[in-house]
Fold:
Amino acid sequence: MNAPVPSPGWTHDFDLVVLGSGAAGFAAATTAACRGLSVLLVEKADTFGGTSAISGGAVWVYGTDQACAAGVTDSADAVRTYLKTTIGRGYRAELIDAYIERGAEALRYLESHSELKYALRPFSPDYYPDEPGATDTGRALEMVEYDGRRLGAAFKHLRKPPAGMLLFGGMMVNRVDIQHFLSFRRSPRSLWHCVKLMARYGRDRLRHERGTRLTVGNALIARLATTAFEKGVQLWLNAQAQSLVIDNGVVTGLTIRHEGRTLRVQARGGVVCAAGGFAAAADAGQRRPATGSGHLTMSPPTNNGDSLALAKAVGAQLGEGLAADFFWAPVSQLRHANGDVERFPHLVTDRAKPGIIAVNRAGQRFVNESNSYHCFVQAMQAQGNAPCWLIADAQALNAYGMGLARPKPVDNSALIEAGYLLRADSPEQLAHLIGVDPKGLAATLRQHNADALAGTDSQFAKGGNSYNLSLGDPHHRPNPCLAPLTRPPFYAIRIETGDLGSARGLVTDANATVLDQQGQPIPGLYAAGNDMNSIMDGTYPGPGITIGPGLTFGYIAATHVAQRLRSGTHATQEA
Structure:
């Protein structure tokens, strides 16, 4: 599909312009292209995919075809009850209802019209499994792996995950793969799974810089991008949107700096802001609680809130008073000898495992380590628990790894030499090495080790609910999340508060149309993903509650544009 001939006064003419190439941006672009619209995707970075490309790629959506096919028992009322409880006073019924009613519709459309493909997680509890309306299965779906070679020449422009998220220098793995690697010594089935993965990876490296078997967020972006490009979506990398063009109150285009030129691009149906929020902005720290310690975002430097500023310049309203302005995650950082830094988000691979605990400066535990990453950081922010340290003994490190450190037989000596993984022969030596109270750590280990042998965490109930157990070691007894730390040497990694992106964004209605300061829609201006004010109000009820709404409202925005163009109106109600 070729873009229409530009109208007078414009250098380019498209039906829709999308700012940002993450999941929400590609959902909007792909939906629009599948509905026959001409689409421009504008990306500031030199790669596409944004934060979504290095995410887990999961979605949290009610009533999907996958859940229905599995016979899952759930209801919209149960979802509302759960979200009302977990979100609290920031619950906006209009947006939650739109998400509940149209999430499955969006997923169904994208899966039937594009390469997108999700599978139901057989056991994936909501993050607050004991709250009313919570479920252990049915709402969380995970990305099906994808062959990156389907992208053709565009594969080299797909954002590559950090090295710490890859095995053997370039092999992607998902949750299932990780469990197989942890179990390959005791399970012939797991051993065969790992052998097949490594054989595929070995063949890939003969022709490619990294493995082409894509999983999680990389597979999500690659699947949508393959269809988008086949449908004629144009992608401009290293392109900077400079201003929105508004005519009689309607957003009709924008100016973009690209390849050394300032271009005036018409967007006949509108502009979708989906550029990833502002977590990497220079002033982002003003929206975070002060902890007296460092903070590490996983957002790329380009996620600096530029699109929010563009929208604000035409009168858009930004969210205020959220439960949190960011989606929190504990993060560690490795500084390489050449000065490069590598960050690792401690989401699901280590904190919940038996034999791993977190302590503060006093050497004391302060949280259930197997709670969600968002909850973990909230505990770090309280009462001076930042920074903290994850601690493991030799048995736990060898079995599960920790952060960037890999399980046995991988040699982690380079991480020790770099000062990322701290090693000591005794708990007392480790306490001195990391700067925590030795007596406090000794008392903590006595209490924890006794609890671990009994199988019950008397302090924080680690392993005490279905979500905790889903992340533990199912082969370990009596509690999959608890084991004594007794076998030297002992290891520690410094953890800072961090985030996966910002939650505060542009206020919208249920059509994803941005609202002005008076609460009225701005025709032709839409927001999705982290540019859209979080429908969860900055809370984190379950896995995939950022990408799920991102895909849904990206789809809704593009669908609304297509309906407006067909009807020849700038009206903002659903056609």
Q: What stands out?
A: DSSP finds 15 helices and 22 strands in the chain. Residues 173-210 form one domain. The CA atoms of residues 528 and 553 lie 6 Å apart.
